[in-house]
């Protein structure tokens, strides 16, 4: 399927690895020029070169802390008129809410709620004026089914979800869509660290937890980041203009509900 994205420009955050990288690569394969962001310059530059080599599109790597105003300004100066924005930030650490202080909550809200909102604020008017825009927020399946040890993430990402629900209905008439992608368990570094933490809490091996988690999934496996990237690219395409304000779950059937 031709998504009619060739020549478009995208900002993809958290793109040095994992799901962010998968989204950047999938968009590049559709001919989208990229500005990719992450904190680690070395890993980001390696990813940028890999995507250039595989796809031939223009890729600008901007190493910056996207949770700061200066970091956002740096990214937006490299791509002041994006057609596509993919927000993505590593989730806060797991744990017991009794252990978290005020700063832990502020950090979670900055990364997983406020930063996406500020980025959207910076690009939404231009997208509306050009009558094309696709905003994808990578959140978590925990928005639908909260995970007890991920309380910081549950709270912050749910706040973003509520904000998007209101805004998306105001921009649809301008061909600007805003959707949230809710990943379940995908083969990423984040998954590995979460499983390690859970295994330590239970006093068992990480491999045992990994096997049990896979067996508990209807798909009996974890997701491939490339699957996630392809779904992101479709939602950015011209054919997806009638999909907005949605929380789209990619979890291999793990969520047991009908809604």
Descriptive report:
Helices cover 48% and strands 14% of the residues. With 259 residues, the protein is α/β, with parallel strands linked by helices. It folds into 2 domains: 9-184 and 225-249, Rossmann fold; 188-222, no CATH class. The chain has a 7-stranded parallel beta sheet, sandwiched between helices. Helix 1 (18-29) runs parallel beside helix 2 (41-55). The longest helix is centred in the middle third of the chain and has 29 residues, at 102-130. The two termini are 28 Å apart. 40% of the residues are buried.
Summary of the model, kept short:
With 259 residues, the chain is α/β, with parallel strands linked by helices.
Largest sheet: 7 strands, parallel
Label the overall shape.
globular
CATH domain topology of the largest domain: Rossmann fold
Strand order of the largest sheet: 3-2-1-4-5-6-7
Write the CATH architecture name of the largest domain: 3-Layer(aba) Sandwich
- The count of strands amounts to 7
Order of helices and strands: EHEHEHEHEHEHHHE
Cα-to-Cα separation, first versus last residue: 28 Å
């Amino acid at each position: 399927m031709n998504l009619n994205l060739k020549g478009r420009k995208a900002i993809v955050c958290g793109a040095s690895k994992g799901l962010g990288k998968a989204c950047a690569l999938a968009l590049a394969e559709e001919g989208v020029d990229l500005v990719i962001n992450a904190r680690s310059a070395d890993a980001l530059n390696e990813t940028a070169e890999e995507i250039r080599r595989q796809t031939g599109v223009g890729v600008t790597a901007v190493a910056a802390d996207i949770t700061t105003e200066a970091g956002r300004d740096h990214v937006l100066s490299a791509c002041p008129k994006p057609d596509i924005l993919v927000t993505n930030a590593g989730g806060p650490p797991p744990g017991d809410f009794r252990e978290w202080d005020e700063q832990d909550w502020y950090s979670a809200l900055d990364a997983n709620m406020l930063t996406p909102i500020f980025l959207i604020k910076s690009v939404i008017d231009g997208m509306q004026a050009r009558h094309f825009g696709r905003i994808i927020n990578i959140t978590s399946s925990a928005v639908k089914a909260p995970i007890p040890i991920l309380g910081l993430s549950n709270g912050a990402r749910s706040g973003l979800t509520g904000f998007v629900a209101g805004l998306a209905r105001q921009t649809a008439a301008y061909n600007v869509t805003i959707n949230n992608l809710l990943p379940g368990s995908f083969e990423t570094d984040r998954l590995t660290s979460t499983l390690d933490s859970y295994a330590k809490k239970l006093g068992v091996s990480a491999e045992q937890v990994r096997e049990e988690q896979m067996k508990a999934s209807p798909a009996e496996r974890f997701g491939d980041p490339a699957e996630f990237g392809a779904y992101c690219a479709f939602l950015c395409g011209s054919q997806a203009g009638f999909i907005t304000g949605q929380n789209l779950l990619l979890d291999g059937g793990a969520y047991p509900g009908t809604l």
